[in-house]
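Mods, move this if it's the wrong board.
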Amino acid sequence: MRVRRVTSEKQLLQRRPLRILSLLLATPITLIFLIHPSLIVDPEAGYSHSMLMLVMLGISSGFIHGVGFDPRGLVWRILFHPVGGWVLMGLGYAILYQVQMG
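Not the wrong board. Structure tokens:
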């Protein structure tokens, strides 16, 4: 029974709408980081380097999943799992929102 659940989870994550979601979450925040990075800096010109590294990991995961690449190694599958990437990209959007509003 456990194998069936894992297979269904893998099949669910390989569907096109979820891959498009990954790309739609990763692309805007990437463009913000590359084109206008001052949007992620608070008014005192500070930022959390470690938090931004986690966000970049999430962005990488979003692009990896979004273009259809499925890592084979266990460590890479865990590190670049799409659900973890979505959470980390959500963290990035939360940071962006907090800096802009506060």
